[in-house]
Specification:
Elements (H helix, E strand, L loop, with lengths): L2 H26 L9 H21 L6 E2 L7 E3 L13 E9 L5 E9 L8 H4 L1 E8 L6 E3 L20 E10 L10 E8 L2 E7 L14 H7 L4 H13 L10 H14 L2 H6 L12 H5 L9 H12 L2 E6 L2 E6 L8 E7 L5 E3 L6
Antiparallel strand pairs: 1-9, 2-3, 3-6, 3-7, 4-8, 5-7, 8-9, 10-11, 11-12, 12-13
Length: 352
Protein backbone atom coordinates (compact mmCIF):
# COMPACT_ATOMS: atom_id res chain seq x y z
CA UNK A 1 0.00 0.00 0.00
CA UNK A 2 1.50 3.37 -1.01
CA UNK A 3 1.94 6.36 1.30
CA UNK A 4 -1.07 8.21 -0.10
CA UNK A 5 -3.50 5.37 0.55
CA UNK A 6 -1.90 4.64 3.93
CA UNK A 7 -2.49 8.27 4.99
CA UNK A 8 -6.10 8.19 3.77
CA UNK A 9 -6.70 4.96 5.64
CA UNK A 10 -5.16 6.37 8.82
CA UNK A 11 -7.44 9.42 8.57
CA UNK A 12 -10.49 7.17 8.28
CA UNK A 13 -9.36 5.05 11.22
CA UNK A 14 -8.87 8.17 13.37
CA UNK A 15 -12.33 9.46 12.44
CA UNK A 16 -13.83 6.08 13.29
CA UNK A 17 -12.12 6.11 16.71
CA UNK A 18 -13.53 9.58 17.42
CA UNK A 19 -17.06 8.41 16.64
CA UNK A 20 -16.69 5.29 18.80
CA UNK A 21 -15.36 7.38 21.70
CA UNK A 22 -18.43 9.56 21.38
CA UNK A 23 -20.63 6.48 21.60
CA UNK A 24 -18.84 5.32 24.75
CA UNK A 25 -19.20 8.74 26.38
CA UNK A 26 -22.93 8.79 25.64
CA UNK A 27 -23.36 5.32 27.10
CA UNK A 28 -21.54 6.31 30.31
CA UNK A 29 -24.04 9.16 31.01
CA UNK A 30 -26.94 8.49 33.41
CA UNK A 31 -30.07 7.47 31.58
CA UNK A 32 -32.07 10.69 32.30
CA UNK A 33 -29.43 12.86 30.58
CA UNK A 34 -29.12 10.88 27.37
CA UNK A 35 -30.78 12.32 24.30
CA UNK A 36 -33.26 9.85 22.88
CA UNK A 37 -31.96 10.22 19.32
CA UNK A 38 -28.24 10.30 20.07
CA UNK A 39 -27.67 6.55 19.96
CA UNK A 40 -29.43 5.97 16.60
CA UNK A 41 -27.69 9.05 15.16
CA UNK A 42 -24.22 7.92 16.21
CA UNK A 43 -24.90 4.36 15.13
CA UNK A 44 -25.92 5.64 11.70
CA UNK A 45 -22.73 7.68 11.56
CA UNK A 46 -20.71 4.57 12.34
CA UNK A 47 -22.44 2.66 9.55
CA UNK A 48 -21.77 5.52 7.11
CA UNK A 49 -18.14 5.64 8.12
CA UNK A 50 -17.66 1.91 7.68
CA UNK A 51 -19.37 2.09 4.30
CA UNK A 52 -17.03 4.91 3.26
CA UNK A 53 -14.08 2.84 4.38
CA UNK A 54 -15.22 -0.10 2.26
CA UNK A 55 -15.72 2.16 -0.76
CA UNK A 56 -12.21 3.53 -0.30
CA UNK A 57 -10.70 0.06 -0.12
CA UNK A 58 -12.33 -1.11 -3.36
CA UNK A 59 -12.03 2.18 -5.27
CA UNK A 60 -8.47 1.44 -6.42
CA UNK A 61 -8.80 -1.80 -8.41
CA UNK A 62 -5.17 -1.94 -9.53
CA UNK A 63 -3.40 -1.27 -6.23
CA UNK A 64 -0.92 -4.11 -5.64
CA UNK A 65 -3.01 -6.52 -7.69
CA UNK A 66 -0.76 -9.40 -8.78
CA UNK A 67 -0.93 -12.64 -10.66
CA UNK A 68 0.41 -14.66 -7.72
CA UNK A 69 -1.38 -14.50 -4.38
CA UNK A 70 0.74 -13.89 -1.30
CA UNK A 71 3.39 -11.86 -3.13
CA UNK A 72 3.97 -8.48 -1.50
CA UNK A 73 4.99 -6.81 -4.75
CA UNK A 74 6.34 -3.37 -5.64
CA UNK A 75 5.48 0.02 -4.20
CA UNK A 76 6.66 3.37 -5.55
CA UNK A 77 7.17 6.71 -3.83
CA UNK A 78 4.62 9.43 -4.57
CA UNK A 79 5.07 12.98 -5.91
CA UNK A 80 2.97 16.03 -6.66
CA UNK A 81 3.72 18.49 -9.48
CA UNK A 82 2.52 21.61 -11.20
CA UNK A 83 1.34 21.21 -14.82
CA UNK A 84 4.06 20.08 -17.24
CA UNK A 85 5.14 21.48 -20.56
CA UNK A 86 3.58 19.34 -23.27
CA UNK A 87 5.65 17.32 -25.76
CA UNK A 88 8.74 17.52 -23.56
CA UNK A 89 10.48 14.51 -22.01
CA UNK A 90 10.46 14.60 -18.22
CA UNK A 91 12.48 12.21 -16.08
CA UNK A 92 11.19 11.21 -12.67
CA UNK A 93 13.42 9.22 -10.31
CA UNK A 94 11.32 7.39 -7.72
CA UNK A 95 12.08 5.10 -4.82
CA UNK A 96 10.95 1.57 -5.55
CA UNK A 97 10.37 -0.88 -2.71
CA UNK A 98 10.29 -4.59 -3.50
CA UNK A 99 8.59 -6.69 -0.83
CA UNK A 100 9.38 -10.15 -2.17
CA UNK A 101 11.71 -12.69 -0.60
CA UNK A 102 14.16 -12.92 -3.52
CA UNK A 103 15.58 -10.31 -5.88
CA UNK A 104 13.43 -9.36 -8.85
CA UNK A 105 14.22 -8.34 -12.42
CA UNK A 106 11.67 -6.07 -14.10
CA UNK A 107 11.16 -7.02 -17.74
CA UNK A 108 8.83 -4.18 -18.73
CA UNK A 109 6.59 -1.39 -17.43
CA UNK A 110 3.55 -0.40 -19.50
CA UNK A 111 0.71 2.08 -19.12
CA UNK A 112 -2.79 0.59 -19.11
CA UNK A 113 -6.30 1.93 -18.59
CA UNK A 114 -8.93 0.66 -16.14
CA UNK A 115 -9.73 -2.26 -18.47
CA UNK A 116 -6.00 -3.11 -18.67
CA UNK A 117 -5.77 -2.02 -22.30
CA UNK A 118 -2.39 -0.51 -23.30
CA UNK A 119 -2.41 3.27 -23.70
CA UNK A 120 -1.32 4.81 -27.01
CA UNK A 121 0.20 8.25 -27.40
CA UNK A 122 -1.76 9.04 -30.57
CA UNK A 123 -5.05 8.41 -28.73
CA UNK A 124 -4.31 8.97 -25.03
CA UNK A 125 -1.57 11.63 -25.36
CA UNK A 126 0.75 10.06 -22.81
CA UNK A 127 3.83 7.88 -23.27
CA UNK A 128 6.10 6.32 -20.67
CA UNK A 129 9.41 4.45 -20.60
CA UNK A 130 11.04 2.98 -17.51
CA UNK A 131 14.70 2.51 -16.59
CA UNK A 132 16.75 1.63 -13.55
CA UNK A 133 19.28 3.67 -11.59
CA UNK A 134 21.69 3.27 -8.69
CA UNK A 135 20.17 3.70 -5.23
CA UNK A 136 22.41 6.74 -4.67
CA UNK A 137 20.49 8.79 -7.27
CA UNK A 138 18.31 11.37 -5.56
CA UNK A 139 14.58 10.95 -6.07
CA UNK A 140 12.86 13.81 -7.88
CA UNK A 141 12.17 15.42 -11.26
CA UNK A 142 14.98 15.88 -13.80
CA UNK A 143 15.30 17.36 -17.27
CA UNK A 144 16.98 15.55 -20.13
CA UNK A 145 20.18 17.48 -19.51
CA UNK A 146 20.62 16.76 -15.81
CA UNK A 147 19.26 13.23 -15.42
CA UNK A 148 22.75 11.71 -15.49
CA UNK A 149 23.30 7.96 -15.73
CA UNK A 150 20.52 5.40 -15.87
CA UNK A 151 20.29 1.86 -17.24
CA UNK A 152 17.94 -0.56 -18.94
CA UNK A 153 15.66 -2.32 -16.46
CA UNK A 154 16.73 -5.75 -17.70
CA UNK A 155 20.31 -4.95 -16.63
CA UNK A 156 19.28 -4.44 -13.00
CA UNK A 157 18.01 -6.57 -10.16
CA UNK A 158 15.85 -5.09 -7.40
CA UNK A 159 16.64 -6.24 -3.88
CA UNK A 160 14.03 -7.02 -1.20
CA UNK A 161 13.28 -4.53 1.58
CA UNK A 162 15.61 -1.73 0.43
CA UNK A 163 15.12 1.59 -1.36
CA UNK A 164 15.81 0.77 -5.02
CA UNK A 165 15.49 3.40 -7.76
CA UNK A 166 13.35 3.40 -10.89
CA UNK A 167 13.43 6.12 -13.57
CA UNK A 168 10.31 7.08 -15.52
CA UNK A 169 10.62 9.10 -18.70
CA UNK A 170 7.25 10.41 -19.82
CA UNK A 171 5.80 12.74 -22.42
CA UNK A 172 2.37 14.37 -22.30
CA UNK A 173 0.68 15.58 -25.47
CA UNK A 174 -1.12 18.92 -25.88
CA UNK A 175 -4.54 17.27 -25.55
CA UNK A 176 -3.70 15.11 -22.52
CA UNK A 177 -6.43 14.76 -19.91
CA UNK A 178 -6.18 12.63 -16.74
CA UNK A 179 -7.30 9.06 -17.38
CA UNK A 180 -9.33 7.49 -14.57
CA UNK A 181 -7.66 4.48 -12.93
CA UNK A 182 -4.64 4.57 -15.22
CA UNK A 183 -2.09 2.06 -13.95
CA UNK A 184 1.37 0.62 -14.42
CA UNK A 185 1.58 -2.95 -15.67
CA UNK A 186 4.83 -4.29 -14.21
CA UNK A 187 6.11 -7.55 -15.66
CA UNK A 188 8.96 -9.10 -13.69
CA UNK A 189 10.77 -12.31 -12.82
CA UNK A 190 11.64 -13.58 -9.36
CA UNK A 191 12.59 -17.02 -8.15
CA UNK A 192 12.57 -18.28 -11.72
CA UNK A 193 8.90 -17.34 -12.25
CA UNK A 194 7.37 -14.61 -14.40
CA UNK A 195 4.75 -12.41 -12.69
CA UNK A 196 2.62 -9.35 -13.38
CA UNK A 197 1.56 -6.55 -11.05
CA UNK A 198 -0.96 -3.79 -11.82
CA UNK A 199 -0.05 -0.75 -9.78
CA UNK A 200 -2.25 2.33 -9.45
CA UNK A 201 0.27 5.10 -8.93
CA UNK A 202 -1.22 8.27 -7.44
CA UNK A 203 1.45 10.45 -9.09
CA UNK A 204 0.63 9.11 -12.54
CA UNK A 205 -3.08 9.72 -12.15
CA UNK A 206 -2.58 13.37 -11.18
CA UNK A 207 -0.36 14.59 -14.03
CA UNK A 208 -1.52 17.55 -16.10
CA UNK A 209 -0.21 19.79 -18.90
CA UNK A 210 0.02 23.52 -19.39
CA UNK A 211 -2.58 24.54 -21.94
CA UNK A 212 -1.19 26.50 -24.91
CA UNK A 213 -3.00 29.34 -26.65
CA UNK A 214 -1.76 28.76 -30.21
CA UNK A 215 -3.46 31.87 -31.58
CA UNK A 216 -1.57 34.00 -29.08
CA UNK A 217 1.61 32.05 -29.79
CA UNK A 218 1.42 32.88 -33.51
CA UNK A 219 0.82 36.54 -32.71
CA UNK A 220 3.89 36.62 -30.46
CA UNK A 221 6.12 35.34 -33.30
CA UNK A 222 5.62 38.55 -35.33
CA UNK A 223 5.23 36.75 -38.65
CA UNK A 224 4.87 38.94 -41.71
CA UNK A 225 1.53 39.08 -43.54
CA UNK A 226 3.22 37.30 -46.44
CA UNK A 227 4.43 34.49 -44.16
CA UNK A 228 1.03 34.14 -42.49
CA UNK A 229 -0.79 33.96 -45.82
CA UNK A 230 1.66 31.40 -47.21
CA UNK A 231 1.49 29.29 -44.06
CA UNK A 232 -2.31 29.29 -44.02
CA UNK A 233 -2.49 28.26 -47.68
CA UNK A 234 0.24 25.63 -47.36
CA UNK A 235 -1.41 24.17 -44.26
CA UNK A 236 -4.50 23.45 -46.34
CA UNK A 237 -2.91 22.32 -49.60
CA UNK A 238 0.51 20.85 -48.66
CA UNK A 239 1.49 22.18 -52.12
CA UNK A 240 4.92 23.83 -52.28
CA UNK A 241 3.71 26.35 -54.84
CA UNK A 242 2.15 28.24 -51.89
CA UNK A 243 5.68 28.85 -50.55
CA UNK A 244 7.19 30.00 -53.85
CA UNK A 245 7.43 33.68 -52.86
CA UNK A 246 9.31 33.02 -49.59
CA UNK A 247 13.03 33.03 -48.98
CA UNK A 248 14.91 30.29 -47.08
CA UNK A 249 14.77 32.00 -43.66
CA UNK A 250 10.99 32.41 -43.93
CA UNK A 251 10.69 28.74 -44.93
CA UNK A 252 12.68 27.76 -41.83
CA UNK A 253 10.52 29.99 -39.62
CA UNK A 254 7.33 28.36 -40.87
CA UNK A 255 8.86 24.90 -40.51
CA UNK A 256 9.45 25.57 -36.81
CA UNK A 257 5.95 27.00 -36.48
CA UNK A 258 4.54 23.69 -37.74
CA UNK A 259 6.60 21.91 -35.07
CA UNK A 260 5.25 24.25 -32.41
CA UNK A 261 1.72 23.42 -33.51
CA UNK A 262 2.51 19.71 -33.44
CA UNK A 263 1.25 19.17 -36.99
CA UNK A 264 3.50 16.28 -38.00
CA UNK A 265 2.05 15.91 -41.49
CA UNK A 266 2.58 19.61 -42.18
CA UNK A 267 6.13 19.48 -40.83
CA UNK A 268 6.90 16.61 -43.19
CA UNK A 269 5.53 18.64 -46.12
CA UNK A 270 8.28 21.23 -45.59
CA UNK A 271 11.00 18.63 -46.31
CA UNK A 272 12.60 18.31 -49.73
CA UNK A 273 10.64 16.19 -52.19
CA UNK A 274 13.66 15.34 -54.37
CA UNK A 275 13.71 11.55 -54.55
CA UNK A 276 17.46 11.19 -54.00
CA UNK A 277 17.34 13.23 -50.79
CA UNK A 278 14.26 11.80 -49.04
CA UNK A 279 15.42 10.05 -45.86
CA UNK A 280 12.10 8.56 -44.66
CA UNK A 281 8.45 8.38 -45.67
CA UNK A 282 5.48 10.27 -44.28
CA UNK A 283 4.15 7.04 -42.77
CA UNK A 284 7.43 6.54 -40.91
CA UNK A 285 7.42 10.18 -39.84
CA UNK A 286 3.97 9.88 -38.27
CA UNK A 287 5.09 6.82 -36.29
CA UNK A 288 8.21 8.40 -34.79
CA UNK A 289 8.48 8.06 -31.03
CA UNK A 290 7.13 11.01 -29.01
CA UNK A 291 10.33 10.87 -26.94
CA UNK A 292 12.30 12.33 -29.87
CA UNK A 293 10.01 15.20 -30.78
CA UNK A 294 10.72 18.85 -30.05
CA UNK A 295 8.78 20.59 -27.33
CA UNK A 296 6.99 23.85 -28.08
CA UNK A 297 9.60 25.88 -26.20
CA UNK A 298 12.49 24.14 -27.98
CA UNK A 299 10.96 24.82 -31.41
CA UNK A 300 10.19 28.42 -30.39
CA UNK A 301 13.79 29.00 -29.35
CA UNK A 302 15.07 27.67 -32.69
CA UNK A 303 12.53 29.86 -34.50
CA UNK A 304 14.02 32.99 -32.96
CA UNK A 305 17.62 31.83 -33.40
CA UNK A 306 17.14 30.98 -37.09
CA UNK A 307 15.24 34.26 -37.62
CA UNK A 308 18.34 36.13 -36.47
CA UNK A 309 20.66 34.04 -38.66
CA UNK A 310 22.18 34.61 -42.09
CA UNK A 311 21.55 32.49 -45.18
CA UNK A 312 24.65 31.20 -46.95
CA UNK A 313 24.07 29.75 -50.44
CA UNK A 314 26.65 27.09 -51.27
CA UNK A 315 25.44 26.08 -54.74
CA UNK A 316 22.62 26.72 -57.20
CA UNK A 317 20.20 24.60 -55.17
CA UNK A 318 21.82 24.26 -51.72
CA UNK A 319 22.46 26.49 -48.74
CA UNK A 320 22.22 26.82 -44.99
CA UNK A 321 21.23 29.36 -42.37
CA UNK A 322 24.14 30.20 -40.09
CA UNK A 323 22.96 31.12 -36.59
CA UNK A 324 23.97 31.24 -32.94
CA UNK A 325 22.40 28.46 -30.90
CA UNK A 326 22.09 28.86 -27.16
CA UNK A 327 24.71 26.88 -25.28
CA UNK A 328 26.69 25.97 -28.43
CA UNK A 329 30.37 26.86 -28.72
CA UNK A 330 30.29 27.21 -32.52
CA UNK A 331 27.84 28.55 -35.08
CA UNK A 332 25.02 26.19 -35.99
CA UNK A 333 23.64 25.53 -39.47
CA UNK A 334 20.14 24.81 -40.78
CA UNK A 335 20.24 23.22 -44.25
CA UNK A 336 17.81 23.76 -47.15
CA UNK A 337 17.55 22.65 -50.76
CA UNK A 338 15.86 24.26 -53.75
CA UNK A 339 13.58 21.94 -55.74
CA UNK A 340 13.07 21.84 -59.52
CA UNK A 341 10.42 24.57 -59.26
CA UNK A 342 12.91 26.93 -57.60
CA UNK A 343 11.24 26.67 -54.16
CA UNK A 344 13.37 26.32 -51.03
CA UNK A 345 12.63 23.25 -48.90
CA UNK A 346 14.01 21.95 -45.62
CA UNK A 347 16.63 19.21 -45.82
CA UNK A 348 16.06 16.01 -43.87
CA UNK A 349 18.02 16.22 -40.60
CA UNK A 350 18.62 19.95 -41.25
CA UNK A 351 20.54 20.59 -38.03
CA UNK A 352 23.53 18.42 -38.91
Amino acid sequence: MNNYRMKKLQNLEEAEREVMNGVRQQLRKPAPFRQKRSIPYIAAACVSLIAALLVFLIAQPFENEQSISGETGFSISEFGFNPFESRKSHFLVAKLFWGGKEEAVIQSVELVDAARNPLQYEKDHIALQAYGADSSKKAGLYTGKDIGEYRELSEMSFQPNVDNRIVFEFVLGDAFEPIKNMALKITYETGGERNTQYYSWYTLNHLSVKKVDFEQLIQDLNLSSEELAAYSAFKQSKNNIDLAALGPISIARLYFLSEMEGDKELTYAFYTDEADYIAWSLEEHLKFSPFFQQSIEEAKMLFYEVSAGKFVQTSANEGYISFIQEGAEALAGFQLRKNNDGIWQVSFLPMQ
